[in-house]
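Input sequence (156 aa), recorded before submission:
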Amino acid sequence: MSLTIGSVAPDFSLTDTNKATVTLSELKGQKVVLLFFPFAFTGTCTAELCGVRDDISRYSNLNAKVYGISIDSVFSLIKYKEEQNFNFDLLCDFNKEACTAYESVYESFAFGMKGVAKRSAFVIDKDGIIQYAEVLENANEIPNLEAVIAVLTNLN
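Predicted structure, token format:
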């Protein structure tokens, strides 16, 4: 199955940095931005997520809920969120279920690691339909967050 604009967003249940379960299907009726990223505490990931943190009012003003998702443990993500003062939740996909469902997995990554989340961005509308999908092959690139904002704006 290939995820494209107009596809139903795959459901998932992941643990957030408050140790609560977030289930995508329970967010129906809200606009959701999913930002998959390889690892906490790394340069490009921190730059991307700090950019979202610093611009969170744009997402909030568009009534969008933002989630960062990685394969890091929930404990690492709690520390990462705390150190970077992220004002949105990070979700633990340690078992790689969501990143696999969203076709956002590097089969081979640096240092021989396999199954790392690809840097990617998805916008899901209030009905659970994907309205934007960008999956990057190069982990040093950042998704086009202006395009994400534009799609969210058009959903209003």
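Checked by second reader. Residues 13-22+29-155 form a domain with the Glutaredoxin fold (CATH 3.40.30.10).
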